[in-house]
Amino acid sequence: MSDDSKHLSEINAIIRAYTMLSIEAGHVASVIALYEELLRHYGTEKTNEFLRTNGREFPILAAMADENTSYRINKRISNLNSQLSEILKDKTNIVCIGAETAWIDIAARTYSNKQFHIVPQSQHFDFKRFLSNYSSNVRIHNSVDLTQFYGTNSVIVAFAFGTTQYNFYTYPVAYRICGSDTRQFFSELIALDLMDCPLKFYPNDLAEIPTDEMTYIFSRSYKQKRRYYPWKLAA
């Protein structure tokens, strides 16, 4: 096998590994796992060169990966949960649009008295394997019909990537949920930016949503952006 063929084969293998992992663990947990594996296999210098050369295939990984990735993400999640505590204290249902396990793993333990309903980001999601990692306060809701959660005791959490003042990227399934026809029936629509850094490449597998569709934005640019919407449901 030529060097070029070997290199292409390695790239394809990494793409497959990242894609499979991100379906069930989300982008952020996949970044941590795959970056650490790349470091073991290539070393720091070659890994960074690999991401500079192939970053378009791994836009989230290319943006977040450095030697402090795991520490930075865990610190970011800890800070987010501290900021969210006031918003979530009186809520019963937390509807997560996408299975970002880097956050859900910690949040489900932190808010053990809340019920987490996960709307998967892919049809190829293994429900049983995912739920085996959690207690009974985490459930799968395999539908974009969230009627049963309408009311002031429910919030929607979408996971944001590459947040700017005007928009952010998130899982395409959220595009069908986070809009004017939905937000009027929920107490809050929250966007959590777990990346805390800008994107270097366009994320082809994500959808773009205007920030003003949400009631709260937690990003590196601003911790909260509050918008008020009329409550139309008798809760």
What best-fitting shape do the alpha-carbon axes yield?
globular
CATH class of the largest domain: Alpha Beta
Q: Biggest sheet, in brief?
A: 6 strands, parallel
Strand content: 15-25%
Order of helices and strands: HHHHEHEHEEEHHEEE
Features:
235 residues, alpha/beta, Rossmann fold, 2 domains, 6-stranded parallel β-sheet, two-stranded antiparallel ribbon, 43% helix, disordered C terminus
Question: What does this molecule look like?
Answer:
The chain is α/β, with parallel strands linked by helices. It has 2 domains: 3-64, no CATH class; 78-218, Rossmann fold. Helices cover 43% and strands 18% of the residues. It is built from 8 helices and 8 strands; from the N terminus they run H-H-H-H-E-H-E-H-E-E-E-H-H-E-E-E. It has helices spanning 3-42, 44-54, 59-64, 69-88, 101-110, 127-131, 172-175, 180-183, and strands at 93-97, 115-119, 138-140, 151-160, 167-170, 186-193, 207-210, 216-218. The strands form 2 sheets. The chain has a 6-stranded parallel beta sheet with strand order 3-2-1-4-6-8, with no helix packed on it. Strands 5-7 form a two-stranded antiparallel sheet. Helix 5 (101-110) links the parallel strand 1 (93-97) and strand 2 (115-119). Helix 4 crosses helix 5 (101-110). It is globular and about 55 Å long. Residues 225-235 have low confidence and may be disordered.
